[in-house]
Amino acid sequence: MTDAPPQVLPAAHEPTGRRPRHLTPTLLGPAFVAAIAYVDPGNVAANLTAGARYGYLLLWVLVAANVIAVLVQYQSAKLGIVTGESLPGVLGARLRRGPRLAFWLQAEVVAAATDLAEIVGGAIALHLLFGVPLPVGGLVVGGVSMLLLATQNRYGQRRFESVVVGLLLVITVGFLTGLLFSPPDARGVLSGLVPRFDGPDSVLLAASMLGATVMPHAIYVHSALVRDRFGRAPEHALEAHHATDRPGLAHRTLLGATRWDVAGALLLAGLVNIGLLLLAASGLRGVPGTDSIEGAHAAIQSALGPGVAIVFAIGLLASGLASTSVGAYAGATIMEGLVHRQIPLLVRRAVTLIPALVLLAVGADPTWTLVVSQVVLSFGIPFAVIPLVRLTRDRSLMGEHRNGPWTHAALVLVVVLVVALNLTLLGLLVAG
């Protein structure tokens, strides 16, 4: 493996310009793909458990987590637009060989853990819907995700985004349909917006919910999604719209559109997560066995009927298929940026499928597998968030688009909060 020399990325010194608002709809999409990470099977399990055990108590955690997600994901997209490079690519250009390879190894472990959880979640959905054995279900999920990635290879970024957004809509319908049959209590919802806990177990669950929200691979992949959509010269991305040939105006146009993209995508993902908690709080409160996806499905079927349970399982299947495709995309981004090597997405998909299939074949408990994957992800969060916060404050890299002191302070607070809660979660899991 040859070692590519470090590169110096150009600063973004640009003139001012007004954003043509009519361009915004045509520039949406990357954030909706990244948002899939926020409605993956791990989030489903955590939110259902929170609602079933504590009712509306931890609703405020999801609201806070969504605000954090908006801040962090916008910074990732902003870095990709201004530099024309992904977060791993920027780090790969700045780190020496030893630290760069070490960073790549931990990022690959995070990507593998993410992929594991998504394939297991999709396999569980196929088992619930059709009684498919878990190993066979994992193979099917991997195969379908390869077809989704082939869409990106053959038809380009926009078509891939359209397919994933379509799956996101299926997820939304699948997970929120139950609310029509078991609407939440308005007073309970309002009381859930007041920050409070009910013993150590609720603290543990809140830490898990927040820790699973800021996903490392979503941060890596969002910067790559905007880079691949708009290219390394953003002004070229707007030429087809006859908008401008000025790089400064191009950056401002794309950043303006990205704010709407991130806000809309994560609002939708946040509503899905909140809907899952509300569904469990209104229809599954106190029902035993809802600390696993299979148990939650059985409880939904018992409390709300088989029709709602089927729609829920379809949403879970769409969640596994979409999120594992995005996870493979993230893994390819990490390798390209940090070791300067590209492996075809389909080949990578086939290789990373193996660990999940092995665990399913040997009979590993699916819920335990999901828990372990979330613990691994908690280790990876600081490695993704801390460099992002530092880089978006760097004037030599971001130019006039670097974060101001108030934005930087807010992001530092987010880092401290997320890291502290994930360390708390990790400590409680080890102690338990």
Set out the fold topology.
Layout: H1 30-34, H2 41-54, H3 59-83, H4 87-94, H5 97-130, H6 134-155, H7 157-176, H8 178-181, H9 186-192, H10 200-211, H11 216-230, H12 234-237, H13 247-283, H14 293-304, H15 306-339, H16 345-361, H17 366-391, H18 395-398, H19 405-431
Helix pairs in contact: 2-10, 2-13, 3-11, 3-13, 3-17, 4-15, 5-6, 5-15, 5-16, 5-17, 6-7, 6-15, 6-16, 7-13, 7-15, 10-19, 11-15, 11-17, 14-15, 15-16, 17-19
Provide an overview of this structure.
This protein is mainly α. It has one domain: Up-down Bundle (Amino acid/polyamine transporter I). It is built from 19 helices and no strands. The protein has helices at residues 30-34, 41-54, 59-83, 87-94, 97-130, 134-155, 157-176, 178-181, 186-192, 200-211, 216-230, 234-237, 247-283, 293-304, 306-339, 345-361, 366-391, 395-398, 405-431. Helix 6 packs antiparallel against helix 7 (157-176) and helix 6 (134-155) runs antiparallel to helix 16 (345-361). The longest helix has 37 residues, at 247-283. Mean pLDDT is 82; it is low at 1-22 and 235-247.
Sheet bearing the most strands, described?
Answer: none
Number of structurally distinct domains: 1
H-E string: HHHHHHHHHHHHHHHHHHH
CATH architecture: Up-down Bundle
Given helix and strand content, the structural type is mainly alpha
Residues in β-strands, percent = under 5%
Strand segment count:
0
What overall form do the CA principal axes indicate? globular
Roughly what is the average pLDDT, rounded to an integer? 82
Computed CA radius of gyration, to the nearest angstrom: 21 Å
Q: What is the CATH domain class?
A: Mainly Alpha
How would you name the CATH homologous superfamily? Amino acid/polyamine transporter I
Number of H- or I-type helical stretches: 19
